[in-house]
Amino acid sequence: MNSSSGHIRIVLIGGSGYAGFEVLRWIGRHPAAEVVGVFGPENELGALDSFHPLLSGQVTLRQELFSEKATAALKADLAMLCVPHKVAMSYVPALRKLGLRIIDWSADYRLSDAGVYEKWYCPHTDPVGLAEAVYGLPEFFAEKIASADLVANPGCYPTCAVLAIAPVLSAGLIEPNGIVVNAISGVSGAGRTPSLKQHFPERNENFEPYAVGNHRHAPEMEQILKAITALETPLLFQPHLCPMDRGMLCSIYATPAPGATEQKLTAALEARYDDKPFVRVRTDVIPATKYVVDTNYCDVAVRVANGKVILFSALDNLLKGASTQGIQNMNLMFGMDETTGLY
Amino acid sequence: MNSSSGHIRIVLIGGSGYAGFEVLRWIGRHPAAEVVGVFGPENELGALDSFHPLLSGQVTLRQELFSEKATAALKADLAMLCVPHKVAMSYVPALRKLGLRIIDWSADYRLSDAGVYEKWYCPHTDPVGLAEAVYGLPEFFAEKIASADLVANPGCYPTCAVLAIAPVLSAGLIEPNGIVVNAISGVSGAGRTPSLKQHFPERNENFEPYAVGNHRHAPEMEQILKAITALETPLLFQPHLCPMDRGMLCSIYATPAPGATEQKLTAALEARYDDKPFVRVRTDVIPATKYVVDTNYCDVAVRVANGKVILFSALDNLLKGASTQGIQNMNLMFGMDETTGLY
Amino acid sequence: MNSSSGHIRIVLIGGSGYAGFEVLRWIGRHPAAEVVGVFGPENELGALDSFHPLLSGQVTLRQELFSEKATAALKADLAMLCVPHKVAMSYVPALRKLGLRIIDWSADYRLSDAGVYEKWYCPHTDPVGLAEAVYGLPEFFAEKIASADLVANPGCYPTCAVLAIAPVLSAGLIEPNGIVVNAISGVSGAGRTPSLKQHFPERNENFEPYAVGNHRHAPEMEQILKAITALETPLLFQPHLCPMDRGMLCSIYATPAPGATEQKLTAALEARYDDKPFVRVRTDVIPATKYVVDTNYCDVAVRVANGKVILFSALDNLLKGASTQGIQNMNLMFGMDETTGLY
Amino acid sequence: MNSSSGHIRIVLIGGSGYAGFEVLRWIGRHPAAEVVGVFGPENELGALDSFHPLLSGQVTLRQELFSEKATAALKADLAMLCVPHKVAMSYVPALRKLGLRIIDWSADYRLSDAGVYEKWYCPHTDPVGLAEAVYGLPEFFAEKIASADLVANPGCYPTCAVLAIAPVLSAGLIEPNGIVVNAISGVSGAGRTPSLKQHFPERNENFEPYAVGNHRHAPEMEQILKAITALETPLLFQPHLCPMDRGMLCSIYATPAPGATEQKLTAALEARYDDKPFVRVRTDVIPATKYVVDTNYCDVAVRVANGKVILFSALDNLLKGASTQGIQNMNLMFGMDETTGLY
Lengths: 343, 343, 343, 343
Hints:
Four copies of one chain form a homotetramer.
Chain A: E1 8-13, H1 18-29, E2 33-40, E3 46-47, H2 48-51, E4 62-65, H3 68-73, E5 78-81, H4 88-97, E6 101-104, H5 114-120, H6 127-132, E7 134-135, H7 138-147, E8 150-152, H8 156-170, E9 180-185, H9 200-203, E10 208-209, H10 217-229, E11 236-241, E12 248-254, H11 262-273, E13 279-281, E14 298-305, E15 308-315, H12 323-333
Parallel strand pairs in A: 1-2, 1-5, 2-4, 5-6, 6-8, 7-8, 9-11, 13-14
Antiparallel strand pairs in A: 3-4, 9-12, 10-11, 12-15, 14-15
């Protein structure tokens, strides 16, 4: 840290969306970090509380037009990027040249295979960054994150699904084939740009599947599960929109491996997360979104029923699924306790 | 009626919005009316169930580009216009030339004084129509409506407020000055065009005042109250958006006239609506939106407290506040019982 | 029909809950049926609009204490029972002795095997009725329903799941083993009795799985699928509560049979429902609850993705999932077009 | 503070409701306070995360049966009481005997006139405490709060209304007579006990007035306005329930005093709250609940329209309207900056 106050100095790229909002709110509560500058595109400049009136009085920064010079002048330690896919990789090389460590919320550095990225998004313009990026799932990659210069913050759905699946798959308690991830998300997951689909009278009181058979979070899940377990898990991921602001829940159906019991499955989860402060293995209640919203927790549980393993996993799509997971990564990158500022 | 089947043949102008949707749904239940054609603007043509997937299989019409010739070919009795303010008056003269009677949902023919209209909207291009139009509040103008060629269907807020205020004002039980109409509406009242304000994550769990001090429904209320009571009532109207699909509730505060009691006020409401099927004077419950949504009812009640008269009034902004009130007007215009098809 | 007016005279047992509410509302719109009396338990007597203020002015009946004599005096044709499981079978024998045909909304006559019933509920006290009862899923059992004296109206979840699964299973396009039914329901499905779980601040903005591995609708689904297809389908059914009033959606995952394609699967659905007015095979949109609420439709669709068949099915849990499906059954029982009064 | 760690040691009485939940959550973020024990009634004992599953892992305390001895053993500095009206005053004298300072969330010590209290509640059993209690509205009574032994935390509605009214009334810019406070609250304001009124399918999509003409928060408002301004303000307070979890908004209608302008009114608010961190005078937006939920802010604004002054005021009924306002009081009582732990 080059800040005399001992604080991590953060530059935020993209403060006008929901992930940026939560970064601003939670860094505001953090005892050892501060946002010292915010940059955005030309059509979204101005006081941050004009985008987020809740922050008025608390956040006095403006979103300014990005320039390397202005960024350099801030003498920051870290850049956080809350910008859309494809846009992030246009900033990252320049930011790294300025000596900034980076946490990126987009998908641009999550898929280590550029070919897979290009299939789902577009040609990748920063293969060097892509090769170096560390996947920011702290419960599995804490050590690499601690020393990383470029952290790709995971997608909300992959975080939610992988935290439930990985331990029981690693333990050989479920078959790697035929996993179905049935997921629901609150509407903030769709972003802040208005559309007919998310227009209140269309979305309210309306539960709806989307992206049938082709959601780009599926390859991210498969890649990370392979990185953790060394197994190929060609899974089916089906998301749905639920009429609520925030919250995500996965109901995951898998085939039990021979000898798998509910007790062993639960034990595998508990063993994996025993020392992980933000994953709670629930045996008292079935995970529900209301038990995790406005927190950095992911709640998981497992049951065996009618010859299937059912895994449940719940988190706040904007927090453990985005903004506060990024802060958890920051804590690790800067040598702090991973829970700092996250309760 | 020139339909051999004895049915009222209806041409609908503007089927892609919420009022058009409810017209299509409720006319579908009506035993003596049918929509025979639907017209709209160039950028909103196509099968009606592409706009309203709920209607699939039930409504097989397409929204076609309007032309006088195509309209004439339908040999309709009635045109219903669910188009925006300012647009309606561009259709009405042509439709009247074709011999069609008209029910218009816009504000274009509601304000009998062109000067008032122009202050709140724009110059009026059909002064002849404006002079002949009848205000379609059936509980007060049934006779005129029955013989009208051009009915201006009331705004949702004016319907809700006027039905509560008019009887007690007519009876001399409240002072005409200083009335405050505090109103809330479900979000469908804001129409079907997406905007940041009505984007689900912005509007959900959010209660918000709007149009402070300048809502254009205020002059409509004052005009109709004067038409009914011959009194000037310079009122204050303050609307709010409530995070729900539909429903409207007015809480109206007035100064009691000397001698006014809760009993007399209730009696005035009951006397006025005794023979009106769609206004219910509630003494069993306080009006609430859930008791009126998906119906053509307006519920009203009155209380005296702390030296004020409080009137409550609730209706469904898309039904008694728009579409089914128009059908109630149609029933009157074509000599049917006013409740036909409306339960 | 013994009514001079040609109307079906209906006795309703249990008018204070949500299914009873919708029966009262929709029979009120029916051109050839009327509710002539309503009976309930001692602690829930009184004017029906005291339970359902929306019905004030439209329904003037009172819920009276049940007696055979009072019921006989009404000279009804049909009894509709909207009472809880276990209670229904205490009424049915007496009602049948009075010569009434019966539609029962409870589970008491749905499971033709008394042993299965007793496993999930309690000992069955009316084995005679159970043996004669016809399962009221009109799209599959219309003929039997037409002549039935006792119709067991299906559960909401079984209706939703079976309408999607049965045609493709019958056509041999999916494997009967390993089917997963992931379902969500609006909260009205939990009934009208208050509880902490359904207390607004607990349920709102909260998506939650329940009845993990042991929902009693699973055996009902398996039984009906067997009755239709002659196949054993040991399925996994997992319901969730979604924070909205009404609407149900099943996302069903199955293994494709060799040679199954999306085209063949869709064709199987279309062939089965071509002449069925209330099941819509959607190829224009993915089923969503908002497209079916307040209607008697069930929307179904099928996709093939990542080696799985996904079936989607949506309906209004209180209508096609309960009340209006019962009216559809009534229409069949009394020789009317099955759509009468149901748009 | 008698804690060696320099922390304020807090005993919480009543941790199972919503105010208790927020106290536990926000004290968990506070750098200089901790809850060391929680007590409750016999039928609500057990682990706090069994009442509030969100707190699992973070709050490990149990709610124990209250006893003076157990309380004394905790060597606490402060007791916070989140128990119902009438119950609080049964605890307070004993707690004070133990030397604890007290913040009470009930109404028991808010109404300084025992006669007024008894009219709305019941006979008062702790007149000594009542006489000494300080009303905990920090923006007006900070000095008294700082040295108080017993602080009565204000009601949510009085906080919301008084913060808007008091400055402009003090400045002589509105007439003290004829003020109407039209208020709405999210449903958490009704507490955690289930009821038919707050049953999800009854309350969702339902906006409803309640407590017409007799809400007990009205005398609290009048008393505090008099304490601040020395004026009698016989106002009309009308609350409504809005279908959302949390948030409160008052739309307040008053008669302008001669010479009052929007500019002067705004200036009076700004002058009063210039140095108050938690009241924001909004000129950029009209206050809305979404701008204040999950914060300790109260947003206020004023407009003049149609001869009336309209004041808007919004806060989170569980935070600035309850729990975090109590923590703000605690900060003052223990000599800390009033914002400590409240962002």
